[in-house]
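Reviewers of the previous submission asked for a worked example of the structure-prediction workflow described in the proposal, so we include one complete record here. The input consisted solely of the amino acid sequence. No template or homolog information was supplied to the procedure at any stage.
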Amino acid sequence: MNTSIEERLVDTLKTVGDTLGPEDVPSLELGRARDGKSLFARPMLIVAAAAASVAVAVGGVAVVRDEGPLAERPLARPSGTHQVQVFLCRKTSSNVACQQRNTTQQLRGEIRRVLTSAPGVEKVEYESLQDAWERFQDKFAESMAKEDAKVGDIPDSFRVTTRTASDAQKVRQIVLGRDGVDQVVTL
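From that input alone, the workflow returned the following structure tokens.
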């Protein structure tokens, strides 16, 4: 059966959406930020938010795509494994728990220790700010949005590979709400 990219994207977004609960979605505050500046006066915040959303969507499509330049990159996960991506806090994060601070090296180490010791975890990989920016530049090579992004706009993260979907959900619950963790996405 030949399904279109749009259909696969819808299925992937639905799958990701099913893993989110109300506690995962920050409240929407339009108009002004805490510092009194208009949110729309912060173009990098808007670009970063859009980039993160599109990165999750494109990442899901890249996992199932079998032709073209995306297939050259090792995006597909091994059969029978599940992934969780743990995005770390940045000063620009909209998550109030981040308190407009970057995750410290000490917190990053604690998060890594928690992830590596969680049951069912096969692999934990750290994606630095530089690596995240380069991946964003590669994915959006033809886009005007990439010209406005700079290193640090795309958050660093941990990519966690687990044996089962249940293990992935357990990892998600373990790190969700921890100091230094902005968002957790189960792929």
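The two ends are 23 Å apart (CA to CA). We consider this example representative of the routine output the project will generate in years two and three.
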